[in-house]
Amino acid sequence: MVKKSPSRRTSGSAVMIAPSSPAGVASPRTPGSAGQHAKIRRPLTSAEIMRLQMRVSEQSDNRLRRTLVRTLVGQMGRRAETIILPLELLRHLKPSEFNDPLEYHLWQKRQLRILEIGLLLHPSIPVEKDNASASRLREIIQACEIKTIDTSKNSETMKSLSNAVVSLAWRSADGAPNDTCRWADGFPLNIHIYTALLGSIFDLKDDTLVLNEVDELLELMKKTWSTLGITRSIHNLCFTWVLFEQYVVTNQVEPDLLGATLTMLTEVANDSKKVDKDRIYLKMLMSVLSSMRRWCEKRLLNYHASFHAENIVLMENIIPLMFSASEILEEDVPGYVSSAAEKGDVKDDLTGNRVNHFIRSSLRTAFSKMLEERNINVATFESEDVIETLIKLANATEELATKEKEIFTPVLKKWHPIAAGVAAVTLHTCYGTLLRQYLAGTTFLTNETALVLQRAGKLEKLLVQMVAEDFVDCEDGGKTIVREMVPYEVDSIKINLLRKWIQDSLKKGKEVLVRSKDPETWNPKSKSEPYAQSALDLVKHSKEVVDNFFEIPTIITENLVNDIADGIENLFKDYVTFVASCGAKQSYMPALPPLTRCGQDSRFVKLWKKAACSVGSNDPNQHLMDEDNNPRPSTSRGTQRLYIRLNTLYYLLQQLNSLDKTLSLSPRVIATPGSRYNKNRQLACCSFFDQTRSAIQAAIQHVSEVAAYRLMFFDSNSVFYASLYVGDIENARIRPALRILKQNLTLLCAILIDRAQPLALKEVTRASFEAYLMVLLAGGTRRNFSRMDHQMIEEDFESLKRIFYTCGEGLILEDVVEKEATIVEGIVALMGQSTEQLVEDFSTMACEASGIGVVGDGQKLPMPPTTGRWNRSDANTILRVLCHRNDKFANHFLKKTFHLAKRRG
User: How many Cα atoms occupy the beta-carbon half-sphere of 558 within 13 Å?
Assistant: First the structure.
C-alpha cells in the first residue's frame, strides 16, 4: 500500500516557503537573482503534511501557531499536554482576527462546545451534580448561544471561564493533588479526535492508498496520547478500525487495506490477553470487533453474491478476520454474547465449524435467487411449462455446484475439511425440496413427471459423486453428513405419493376432530343413536378414508396399510382421551371430618327432635317428593352427559372392530412372507387397534366410576350422605333414599345402551356402598349410634343390596353384589358388638399395626393412621365405630386414651 502512494513531500500541492522565514519570505542566504525574493521549493515537514491531510487552512493554522506562541511566552518549561487549547484560543484570539463578528461568534461557540463535550458531557472523571465550576461553565456556554462573550484580559466572564475550566480539567478521581490535565481524554470524545487523526494517513487524491510518510505521521499522533488519554492498546484498536472502515467506505476495492486490518488485528489479539484491561477499552473492543464480525458474517452468509473468481483473495482475508474477531470476543471480553446465541441460532452444526453454516446459507440464497429469476413458486406448479422449468433448474443447479467446487471450495477447505460435501448436500436438499413440492401436487405418474425424475436422478448422481470425492480422507467416510441426503428414490415415487395422500387424509381427520370437539355438548344425536355427534363425525371420516384408500389404482403394500391404520388409531386415541377428560371420582367425595367423641344430647333436646320429626319439619327428603308422595329421580344433567360419554365409548369400540376387519381382509393388500396376511383371508387374524381398544376399556372404567360417584355423592347427596341417620336413627332410615336411587337406576338403564349398563350398575353399587360406609364411619357431628341401632342398620343395608339384585334382568349378578358388600357387612357387624369388645379388638389391632406388641404400664395406645380403606380388621375403622358409639364406656376410653374432645354442633 505504501509503495503505491506518492510522497506528499514531492507532490504538486507542496507550498513554496523558506525553512526559517516567516510568512513565506525567502532567506537572504538563499541563492537567486539579485534584488529579488526568490521562493525555494523544499520538502514539507510532517506537521505540514498533517495540516494538508486534515484540510486545515493556512489562516486557521496561523491563528493556532500564534496562540501557542503567546501561551508559551515566559513558560518555557510548560508541557504541551497541560495546554487547554480551546481556552487558550478564546483567551488570545480577538474578534479583529476574523472576517466579521458573525464568524467570530460561530468560532467562539465551537470552542465552548469542545470544552462542554470534554469537561461536562464526556469527561474522563465524572462531574458531580453539585460542582460549582461545572454550573458556571454551563452558564457561560448558554450565554454564548445568545451573544458573543467578552474574552478580554480583564473580563470577569473570561476570568470565571478560565477558573471553571482549569478547575474541571485538573481534577482527580480521589481529590488528591493531580499533575494531569484532563480536558480531552474522556470517552468517546478522545476516540473521535484520534480516529480523525488516524484518517489523515490516507492519500487525499486516492483514499485507498496510505502515504509514504505514514510512520512520521503516526509519530506525530503519538504526541497527542498524553492529552487524549490514548494507550498503545487503544491506538492499535483504533488503527485497526480505521483501516477496516477505510476498506469498507472505499467500496472494498483495495484488498491490501483488508490485509493490513488483519495484521493489526494480531496486535489487538495480543493486547486483549493483558490482564489490566480497563472498562473503556473493553467497551471499545466489544463494539469494534462486533461490528467487524457482523460485517464479515453478512458477506460470508451470501458469499456467492459478494465474491467471484477475480476477487476470491478478499474472501481468503475475510474468513480469518471473522474468526480472529470472534475468538477475541469470546475469549477475552467478559460477558460477551453473540447475537446468534441470543436468538438461539445454532451455527456450528455437524462439524462444529461456522463455515459449515456459511456454505449452507450462501448456497440456499443462491438457489433461491435462481428460483426468483425463473419465477418459480408454488403457483408455477399449476402451469403447463413446469416440467421444462424444473429441468432447466436442474441444469442451473449443476452449474452452481461446479462453480462452488472450482472457485470457493479451495478457499473454504482451509477452514472446513468437507466443504464440497456440505455444498453438495445443501444443493441436493434444495432441489429435492422443490421436487417434492412438485410431486405433492401430482396424484399419478405421467411421462412429463418421468422426465423430471430422470433429470433429478442425473443431478443426484453428480452431487453424490461430489460428496464421495470430498470424503476420501474423512475419518468416518462422511457418513454423518451423507445421512442428510435423503434420496430422491425415483422408483418409489408411487408409494411416496400414496403415503402423502394418507398423510393429507389423516390431517383432515385431525381437523374434523378439532371441529367436532369444540362444540361438543354430550347430548345424544337421537334416541336411536344415543352417541355424541363428534364420535359420529370421526367414524364417518375414518371409514371414508379407508374406502378411498382401497380404491386408489396402485399397489398397496402392507406397510402402507400399517401407516393408515396407525394414523386412524392416533385419531381415535386422541378422541378417547377427550372423552375420558371428565374429572375424577375423588372430587365428589366429601372430606373426612376430624375424629371426635360422640356427643350426647340432653333429654330435652331428644324430646324436641322427636317432636320435630313427628311433624316432618326435619325431613331432609321432603323437597324430593311431590303431592302424591312419588319420588323424582335426582340424576343431574352433568351425570346424564357422562352416560352419553359411556355410550360413545362403546360405539367407538364397535366401529373399531368394523375398521379392523376391512383393513385385515382386503384382497388388495400385497402380503409379505411371514406377515399377518395369508392366502386364506378368512383365517387371517389381524388386529390394528389393540392399543386403542385398551385405551377405550380404561376410559370406560374411568367414566363409569366418575358417573357413579357423581350420582351418589353429588346428585343424591341430600338424601344419602347428608340425611341418612342424621339425628335420630329411627326417623332417618334409608327407605326415602332407596326410592330415589331406584328411580335413578331406572333412568340410567333408559339412557345407557345395553352393553354399557352392567359395568355402570356395578360402579353405582360400589359407590353406594362407599357412601353408606362414609355415613357410618365419617358421618360428622350430626350422627351417633348405639349398639341397639345395629339391627336397623343391618336391615337398611340389606334393602340397599336388594335394590341392585332386582335392577334389570340379570344386569348385575347377585354374587357381584355380595362380593362388593363384604366389606360393608363386616363393618355393620362391628356396630353390633359391645363397646368392651370393640375396645379390646382395637387395642390388639393398634398394637399389632404399630409393632409394639403388648402395651405395658405407662404406655399409651398409638393413634392408627387414616387410610380410607375401611375394613373390620383395620384399627382406624374400629376407632371410628367407637367415636360414633353413643355410650359412656366408649366416651371414657376415647377421652382417657386419645384426649378426644366431645362433638359440638
Answer: 13
Residues 6 or more apart from 411 whose CB is under 8 A from it?
312, 315, 316, 319
Written as one string, the DSSP assignment of 37-82 is ------PPPHHHHHHHHTT--HHHHHHHHHHHHHHHTT-TT--GGG
CA–CA separation, 234 vs 400, rounded Å? 44
Q: How far is Cα 546 from Cα 569, in angstroms, rounded to an integer?
A: 12
* Predicted pLDDT at 676: 57
Q: What is the rounded distance in angstroms from the CA atom of residue 524 to the CA atom of residue 201? A: 89
Spatial CB neighbours of 184, under 8 Å, sequence gap ≥ 6: 114, 118, 190, 193, 227, 228, 229
Q: Is the peptide bond before 633 cis (omega within 30 degrees of 0)?
A: no
Nearest Cα residue to 712 out of 775, 754, 759: 775
- The dihedrals phi and psi of 382, each to the nearest 5 degrees, come to -90, -5
Three cell numbers written together for 576 = 378417547
Query: What is the 8-class DSSP label of residue 677?
Result: -
Amino acid at 350: L
Length, in residues, of the chain: 905
The DSSP string of 235-272 is: HHHHHHHHHHHHHHHTTT--HHHHHHHHHHHHHHHHHH
- Please give the Cα distance from 636 to 579 (Å, whole number): 19
Helices (DSSP H) in 711-813: which residue ranges? 735-751, 757-777, 790-805
Q: What is the pLDDT of residues 509-550, one digit of tens each?
A: 999 999 988 888 999 888 888 999 999 999 999 999 898 888
* Cβ-Cβ contacts under 8 Å for 200 (sequence gap 6 or more): 50, 53, 54, 217
| DSSP string computed for 397-449 | HHHHHHHIIIIIHHHHTTT-TTHHHHHHHHHHHHHHHHHHHHHHT-SS--HHH
Chain centroid, CA 682 distance in Å = 53
* Distance (Å) of CA 258 to CA 307, 321, 412: 14, 9, 18
Q: How far, in Å, CA of 286 to CA of 288, rounded?
A: 6
DSSP 8-class letter at 600: P
The pTM (predicted TM-score) of the whole model is 0.54
253, 212 Cβ separation under 8 angstroms = no
Do the Cβ atoms of 727 and 618 come closer than 8 Å?
yes
Model pLDDT for residues 497-517, shown as the tens digit of each residue: 678 778 888 899 999 999 988
User: From CA 254, how far away is CA 89, in angstroms rounded?
Assistant: 40
Report the alpha-carbon distance of residue 818 to residue 840 in Å, rounded: 29
CB 750 within 8 A of CB 722: no
Give the DSSP H or E segment for 525.
none
pLDDT means over runs of 10, the chain (905 residues): 61 37 32 45 84 88 85 73 88 89 93 93 89 92 92 89 91 78 89 93 89 91 90 94 94 90 93 84 92 93 91 90 91 74 46 80 93 76 75 92 93 89 93 85 67 85 88 66 80 72 87 89 88 92 88 75 91 94 91 82 48 43 42 81 95 92 83 58 62 94 95 92 88 91 92 93 94 91 89 93 81 86 92 92 85 64 85 90 90 89 72
Inter-residue contact 870 to 773 (CB < 8 Å): yes
Report the C-alpha gap between 474 and 628 in whole angstroms.
95
Q: Are 745 and 845 in contact (CB under 8 A)?
A: no
Contact 724, 732 (CB under 8 A): yes
